Amino acid sequence: MTTSNKIDDGIFFSAVIQGHTITVELPPSITPALSGLPLRSRTYVGRSRELSSLLDQLDPSRSHQNTARFAAVVGMAGVGKTELALQAAAEAEKRTGWFPGGILFINLFGYDNERYISPEQALGSLLIALGIPGEQIPPDLADRTRLYRSILSAYASRGKHILIVIDNASSDGQVEPLLPSHDDGTAIVTSRHSLAVGARILDLDVLEPSASVELVRRVLFQARGENDSRVAQEQEKARALVELCGNLPLALQICASLLADSPSRPISSLVQALFAAHTRLDRLKREDRAVRAAFELSYLQLSADPARILRLLPLNPGPDISSRAAAHLTGDPNIEVILEDLARAHLIEPGTTWGRWRLHDLLRLYADEKGKEHAELDERQFSLERVLYFYLMGATSANLILKERNGRGEDEVDALEWLEEERSNLVAAAQTGHEIGVDLAFALDEFFHLRRYFDDWLAVIDSALKALRIRGDLHREGWALATLALVLYHVRRFDEALEIGKAAIDICRRSGNRYGEQAALNALSQSLYHLGEYRDSVDAGRKAAEILHELNDPQAAKALGSLALALQELDIQEAIQLHRDAVSDCQAREDRQGEAAMRNLLGMALRKSGEFTEAAQEHWAAATLYQEVGDHHGEAAALGSYGLALQDAGRYAEAIHAHSQDVRLCEETGDRHALAEALDNLALAHRRAGQVDNAVVIYRQAAEIFQEVEDLSMEGLAIGGSGRAFEEAGRLGEAIEAYRDAVQSFRNANDRENLLMALETLGITLLKGGFSEESDKVRQEFMTLASALDAC
Description:
This protein is mainly alpha-helical and 792 residues long. Among the domains are: 48-203, Rossmann fold, CATH 3.40.50.300; 209-290, no CATH class; 302-374, Arc Repressor Mutant, subunit A (Orthogonal Bundle), CATH 1.10.10.10; 671-791, Alpha Horseshoe (Serine Threonine Protein Phosphatase 5, Tetratricopeptide repeat). Helix content is 65%, strand content 5%. It is elongated, with a radius of gyration of 36 Å. The protein starts with 47 loop residues before the first helix and ends with a helix.
C-alpha cells in the first residue's frame, strides 16, 4: 500500500507537519481577511476623470517599469479622498486578473491624536488580516516589515497580487513600512499631505458646481425617494447652497443629510442659515460629522510658525495672495518655505501661477476663527496694515508709471502685469474701509481707466466715499465725487454723472480743492455733450481748462482740446484749431497717450467738416499711437473712427477691414459695449457697400449685445439699421418688422427723441407697403409725441 504525504498549492508561514500517523490538536483554522473594504457611498458623483486616472495607475497590464507602482490621493480635509480610493479599489476588485489575492484596507487615523495608528500597530493589524497568528508576529518594526513584505511577495509569486489601501496617512514615516516591495503589490494611499513615498500623486480638488448639486439631489433621493423634488424645485437655491459649501463634499454631505432629516424643510431655509459667514461652520455639522472638526485635526498637526501663518492668511482681503504679499502680511521674509509646507498639508492651495496661494472658503473661515482667538499674540491689526500698505505702495508706483507712459519701457509692462495679477486683491483691499484702503482707491484710477474696469472703479470709489464721509474729510470727498462723475460718464449714465458732478464742484469749491473741481468740471462737460447740451458743455470745459492754466498745469492745452468735441457742434473751425493746438502741445511734452486722444478728436472734427481723407489719416495715426503705448481700448476706438472716415470717403472695402480689426480688439479686451458699437459700424459699412445680408446679420449681433449691456436706445438704433438695409434692398416687409422692433426698443428705453424718429420712419414705410390703416395710427402717435416734446 502506497501512502501519499504531499502538500502543495499553499502559502505557509508557520510549522508544517508531515507524517504517516500523527495525532495533533490544531488551533482553529485562520482565513486571511482580504476583502474587508468599508462600504462605498451610493451617491458618488463627479469624479469620473479622477477615477479613470487612478484605475489606469492600478491596471496590471500597463507597464510600470518607468512609473510608480503606488498611487497617492491627496487633498484637503473633507474633499473625498477616502471615497475615491474605495471606489477605485472596489472597481479594481471586479476586474478579472487585477488583484486575485484580494484587497487589504487600513485607516491610519494619521490626523487624530487619540486614534493615531503607528506603523508597528498597522503592520500588526495587516499581518493578522493576512492570516498570521498573533503569537507569531514579531514585536520589532523592521521584523514586522520584513515578514509583511515576504508574505506579499509570496502571494505575488503565485500570481495572487494584493492591493493595499492605506487611508489617512499623515507622514512618509507612517506609510512607508506598509508599502509592498517593488512588483510584489500595489497600493493606494490617501493623505492630506503630498507624501514623498514614490507614489504617483493625484491632487483631489472640490467638485464642480453641477456635480455638487447632483450630489445633494442623490442623497435626498436615496433618503427620501423620488418624491423629494426640492433640488428640482429650488434650483437657484441649490446652486447657492453648494456655493456656500465651497463645493466641498464633506460639507455637501452634511447639508444634504440635514435636509434629508427634515423633508419639509426648503433648501432656502438652509441657505439662509448658512449665509452668515461667522456661524457657517457651526451649522455645517450633523451627529459625528463636522467640517470644523475635520479642519481641526489638520490644524493641530502644525507647529507654532505654520499655525500662526495660517491664522494670518485670512486677513488678506482678496481671493489669493502672492508670496511677496504674504511676507509683508506676516513679517516673515522666508515665508515661501512655510507656505509650501501648508500646501503639502493641503491647508492652502497653490494658485494658478507659481508663487500665489489661496484658502478654500471654509478653511478661510476656520483659520479666521483661530486668528481671532489669537489676535493679540499674532498682532493681527498690525499685520493687516502691513499687507494693505504693500498693496498701496505697489499700486501707487505702478499708477505713476502708467500716467507717464510713452510705450517705450519695460516698466510699463511690469506695472500692468503686477496690477492685473493683484487686481482682485487691490479691489478688495480698497474696500476695507481702512484709511490705507481709501488711499488705494485713488491710486488705481489710471489702471482702471486704461483697462476699462469701470465696475471695479465704481465699487472702490463708492467704498472710499462712505469712509470719507464718516471721517468728515471734505477735501477728498470732493475728489472722490469728481472721480465718480467721470466713471458714471464712462458707463453712459449721463444724468447721474451730471448730478454727481455738480455736487462734486460744490464740495471742491467749499474745501478749496482746485484739482478736484477741474476734474468734476471735465466730467460735467463730457456728460453735457452726450446729453446734447453743447453750449453748457463748452462752458464747463473752458472753466476746467482755466483752472489748469491757473495752476500752471501742462495738461491745460489738452483740456481745451477735449472740450472741442462739444465745440464741433457750435463752431467746427474753432474746434479743429483747438484740436490742432492740443496735438502740438502733446507732441512738445512727448505725451504719446495724449497725442493719440487729441489726434482722434481732430479726426472727428475733420470728418464733420467734410475733410474725410485727412480725417482718416488722423484716426490712423491715433490708432498707431494707441497701439504703441499699449492702450488697446483706445486703439479699437480709433480704428472705429478710421473706418467711419473711410466710409464717408466711399472706401467701403477698406472700411470693412478697419471695422473688423476694431471688432477683434473689442473681443480681446472684453469690452461688450464697445464690441456692440464696433459691430454696428461694421454693419453700416456692409450696408453702404450694398451687402444687405451681411449687414442685417451683424446689426442683429450688435442689437443682442446692446440688449445684454442694457443699452436699449442703441439696441433700437442697431435694429433700425437693419430695417434701413432691408428697405434699401426693396424688402419692405422685413424692413417694417425691423422698424416695429426698433420702436419697441425705444419705448422700453423711454427714449422719446429716438422713438419720435422711429415712429416717423415706420409710418412712412407702412404707407409705402400699403398698410395705410396702421400707418395712420403710427403717424397719429408721432404727432402726439411731437406735440408733447415741443411743449417741453
